[in-house]
Structure prediction request, 241 residues.
Amino acid sequence: MEPLLGRADEPFMVGGLTRFNAVGDSIQRLDIELGPKEKVYAEGGHLIYKSQTVRLTASAKGGLLSGLKRALTGATFFVLELEGPGSASLAGFAPGKIVEIELSQNDEVLAEHRSFLAAEESVSYDASLTGLGFGWLGGEGLLMAKFRGPGRLFLHTSGDAVMLSLGPGESVDAEAGHVLAFDSSVKVSVGRVGGFKTMLFGEEGLWFARAAGPGRIWLRTLSRQQIIMGLMPDIAKVVRA
Prediction:
């Protein structure tokens, strides 16, 4: 199992003239430079600014059925299409990092739907049914976002991100709320870890996601549950004031 940490502030080329750059440290944004007629698409609500020359269009990426399936995951029916020339900048809804995933032809990745930030035009965006256990216990319902290459995909994660590369027969247990994305070749199931005492006093979720290789899995270091638990004492103080 090979762990790889996400990179920050490293520009990279994507086809033609399109250039992406993750900028910042604990609160990253994604800067994009587009050549004439070049396109990327993004989830609505993440745009910070754009050049006047960049054209914006609402697009049902993948058609009506894909749009409906995305809507069922809690994502938007339409995506925001950006066409160059010019520059634009995007960011997530919470402090965290930009995660770059490179997809080869027909590579597929399943991701938490609220983590999607942007992708190359060549990347397809759909939704896929996941196992009942992982879907509900991971906080994602039954459907997850599905992306197919070729092209580059950009996710946003709360906290930091760790990628684990699992070989055949290798597996890892992760608290379900920390799972960000995984290759479709990775088999993910949910099981109880430890006995009753561990579940009661260990202050972890009752269930863990077991990911079995081969393939990659991306984990976020800060789950939504941790964010909520961290804010609760401060919220209680405001309520009592």
User: Anything to note?
Assistant: The chain has a mean pLDDT of 79. The chain has four helices and 21 strands. The chain has one domain: 2-231.
